[in-house]
Every structure is written in structure tokens, then in C-alpha cells.
Specification:
Length: about 160
């Protein structure tokens, strides 16, 4: 697997998720499996057992994926104070045509969550913003057309402010 860039906070979030899955979720699914095994003699026809077994497989896949991602991740700290948009920094932008403003944090490939205001540097918007300074325009090709975003401010991440 290739190297993945990630912020310190993103690395910690993934690590916490991994620990939660290994402890709480494994225990919850093990309990479901035990309960399902005692409810019906023929496990091949026991839908509850089959469902719990499928959940166990999905859980183990997710645990393996998180372990691999954390193993191959490289934590990157923002280059604070250089005036350029970098991974880990907050950026305020305005969509040029609509005038709609957004405040975003640029994060690694595994951390993107638009609802939480985190945009991956691997996304089209993230790629267009990296390296820009206040007043510069990012042009983004999206499925619904081409958009232009003016960089209004480059700021410290919320946790560093």
C-alpha cells in the first residue's frame, strides 16, 4: 500500500476507532454469536447466527484495513505561518459565482468529511487549494461543472488556535 498523508488528529481518530472496534465491537458481536448459537440447533438455518457471522467478517475486514492504513500513514504537520494553504490548516473560501463562503480544514486522504468541514487534499477541491495564498483563485472541475473559489484566509487549525 502507498504512503498516506494524515494529520495528527486524524491519526488519533483512526487509532481510537481501531481500539473501539477491537474491544467494544468484537465483544458485542461475540455476544450476538453466542446467543444465536444457543437459540437454534441447526446453525446453517439460523439467520441470526448467519447475520452475526457476516457482521464479524465485516468487522475483521475493517480492523485489518485500519491497521494497514495506520501502518502506512505518514503524519504531516501543517506549515504554519507561510501564508499558503497546507495540509492541516483551515482555509476560508468564497465560491466566486454564488458568493457562498465556506470554512474548511485540509486533511489527509483518510480524513475527509465534508459534513464536519474536513476536505481531503486528494479531493479535487483539496488539490486545487493546496499551495494557494489569500486572494488567489482555485479552479475545480466537478461533476456539476467547473467552480472557482477565492481564498479569503489561511488560518491555524481550530485545535492549534
Amino acid at each position: 500500500m502507498h504512503e498516506l498523508l494524515i494529520t495528527t488528529e486524524g491519526f488519533e481518530r483512526l487509532g481510537q476507532e481501531l481500539e473501539r472496534l477491537k474491544s467494544e465491537e468484537r465483544r458485542r458481536i461475540a455476544d450476538r454469536l453466542r446467543q444465536a448459537m444457543t437459540s437454534e440447533a441447526n446453525l446453517a438455518q439460523n439467520m441470526e447466527y448467519s447475520d452475526a457471522r457476516d457482521q464479524k467478517l465485516q468487522l475483521e475486514r475493517r480492523i485489518g484495513l485500519l491497521r494497514e492504513r495506520l501502518r502506512s500513514a505518514r503524519i504531516v504537520a501543517p506549515c504554519l505561518g507561510n501564508g499558503r494553504v497546507d495540509l492541516g490548516e483551515r482555509v476560508r473560501v468564497r465560491e466566486v459565482v454564488s458568493g457562498h463562503s465556506l470554512e474548511l480544514e485540509l486533511v489527509g486522504q483518510l480524513e475527509g468529511d465534508l459534513a464536519a468541514g474536513r476536505v481531503s487534499v486528494a479531493s479535487p477541491l483539496g488539490q486545487a487549494l493546496v499551495g494557494l495564498r489569500q486572494g488567489e483563485i482555485a479552479k475545480v472541475d466537478a461533476p456539476r461543472g467547473r467552480f472557482a473559489f477565492e481564498v479569503l484566509a489561511v488560518e491555524l487549525p481550530a485545535h492549534a488556535a
